[in-house]
Hints:
It is built from 7 helices and 8 strands; from the N terminus they run E-H-E-E-H-E-E-H-E-H-E-H-H-E-H. The protein has helices at residues 16-26, 56-64, 83-91, 102-111, 125-133, 140-154, 169-181, and strands at 5-9, 35-37, 51-53, 68-74, 77-82, 96-99, 116-121, 162-165. Strand 4 and strand 5 form a beta hairpin. It has a 4-stranded parallel β-sheet with strand order 6-1-7-8, with helices on both faces. Strands 3-2-5-4 form a 4-stranded mixed β-sheet. By secondary structure, the protein is of the alpha/beta class. The protein has one domain (5-182): Rossmann fold, CATH 3.40.50. Guanosine-5'-monophosphate is lined by residues 12, 16-17, 35, 39, 70, 72, 79-81, 99-101, 103-104.
Amino acid sequence: MTGTLTVLAGPSGVGKGSVVEALRRLHPEIWLSVSVTTRPPRPGETDGVEYHFVDQAEFDRMVADGELLEHDAHLSASYGTPREPVERQLAAGGSALLEIDIEGARQVRASMPDAHLVFLAPPSFDELARRLIGRGTESPERIRERLDRARIEMAAEDEFDAVLVNDEVEAAAHALVALMTTDS
Ligand code: 5GP
């Protein structure tokens, strides 16, 4: 028997990290993949908990040796999902959750067609724009770049099996758990 793989993805700025943080708190029993990244830890982050922090040489080695299920680069850092722990969890019949970007979700779909892809959507494009513009410290060009990217990312919604609207973080976390435990 093999378990179900659920992938949570969505446009940048939609709040995937917050939903997963709430999920860790509400459902510590859920098995969550720990990605590798080349970006430095932020204050409060612990190696092996939020991420495995590696240098670019180690990341490139993992890619070359086929150790990553999927990988992508953005904002000058690389991110990837270690393959072996996910395969082990699924082989044991358990469920697994990945929180990755849209490109990564596409790669998972290609290599694991049975994966359940969940798109985390903002309540509206205007709301996403408000979150991306944030404190207003960025140049108009940078803001335009972010909005253009967000518009492209929002169009990926149709490629997913389910859409979850991130109106309120805890509600979205509960809805995600419900999706993970419903046969699909
Ligand atoms: P952050 O650096 O803010 O933790 O994450 C930045 C982005 O990287 C988020 O959109 C997050 O979903 C994405 N990300 C985190 N881990 C992975 C991964 O293993 N693979 C891919 N493709 N994206 C990831």
